[in-house]
Write the structure tokens for this entry.
Amino acid sequence: MVAMIVGFVLIAFTVFAALPAGLGWGNQIIVFLQGGVPVLTAFIGLIAIFIGIADIKDKKEAKKEEDLAKAREAASSADK
């Protein structure tokens, strides 16, 4: 509940700061976003690459385990 209240207060401050009648920081906010968005997208892209590599490794490991289970099942059915 406290987190929601803090969140609403911070959003209200941001809107107030961006309004021309408020603090008038609208232009500075736009400049910050223009500089920060390329850095943010590069960071998100890097994270996506790492997630993709981890996913490929997980799929290879799962396939190895599945093949091993099939081999064990075939060996146990051949013994009977």
Notes: Residues 68 and 74 are 10 Å apart (CA to CA). The mean pLDDT is 91. The longest helix spans residues 26-79.
